[in-house]
Known about the structure:
Keywords: 4Fe-4S, Iron, Iron-sulfur, Metal-binding, S-adenosyl-L-methionine, Transferase. The chain has 439 residues and is of the alpha/beta class.
Amino acid sequence: MKKVAFYTLGCKLNFSETSSIGRMFEQKGYQKVDFSNAADIYIINTCSVTENADKKCKKVVREALKISPEAYVAIIGCYAQLKPKEISEIPGVDAVLGAAEKFQLIDLLDGFMKKEKPQVFASEIAEANTFNHAHSIHDRTRTFLKVQDGCDYSCTFCTIPLARGNSRSDSVENVMNGAREIAQTDVKEIVLTGVNIGDFGIQHGDRTERFTDLVKALDGVEGIERFRISSIEPNLLKDEIIEYVSKSKRFVPHFHVPLQSGSNKILKQMRRRYQRELYVDRVSKIKSLMPHCCIGVDVIVGFPGETDEDFLETYNFLNELDVSYLHVFTYSERANTKAIDMPGVVPHKVRNERSKMLRNLSEKKRRKFYEENLGTTKTVLFEDDVEEGMMHGFTENYIRVTAKYDPLLINELKSVSLKKINAKGTVEVEEIEAAFVAH
Ligand code: SF4
């Protein structure tokens, strides 16, 4: 029985796809092993957004060959789609598969026999027009379920449309079937994943359904306690979705909404489809219906043309906004994007300073959000991790809590009282009730 190992770089979507490809191998009789174990085949799922994608890819290849010098190495994923030739030249790489081919890799690579030259299967991105279902399972307490792929937007800093193609989705019915299948396992939480999931509903180039249809349908799936929406563009986060989530049985009060900049000038240059006023409106709408809702924000610093004033505008905007944490990205130039040719390049030192300022602001925001929730009762899904005798979990509104390790709590939903924030910035809980609590 041949052994296969996987390594995933990048986002939840990649994680779900690696997991599904792993199951395809198992169905064909391969044995899946940890990356640190000797394997006959290594599959590396790459990312184009990751900083130094090429260096990271090379490093993982080297590591794989250190463990198994004769192993077959295949590279898939976004970076493989963008730079197939460069990747095929990395010493030790046997195959490169692009977006349209990665799900066919077992058939295409035909027994994984090493050839004289690396095999490259990467067609034009327009060929990546089918939707391949994917979800992670048994890898974590929660499952990432892919519902959408690709993006029709053209943000000037982003390579994802080039790496993943046009927007396309699974059908509501298929997603429901996927969720029901997951419900047969012991998974309690599903995170809906995609590139631009608010744009859900396009099949074969036509819009047939909407994201709201999906949310409403999934809310009725028995056996899954929680659904979390991974990230949704502010212009697609419609009132109807917010209102539905506020009354939902299963969708948790947590939204992650990319902002990218608090300056309208920069938003325009980024070709984002909203201005800051819309973002304020979305946050107010959420908070008016769900005061304890967690709101996460993606923000980019150092975009070309971002002056000190523009950055301060972003800083002050976020400082005043009732949001719970920030994911801060330092702008970095990407080949084949519009932004790379824009004037006003921000020196790296300045980019790093700005990033640091926003990271500090994020900590302040997170602490304030946690403080606002102290004294309340929340439901925690405990995870399978132990650190110095303590375990962790997340509340429905994404507060990270800690409790004394108890193996019986793993993957259980428990009602807890949020007591205090400890030195590590996580919330200590008390009075964990023995009874199962449906959220
Ligand atoms: S919405 Fe913009 S940033 Fe997000 S994937 Fe599409 S092009 Fe990239």
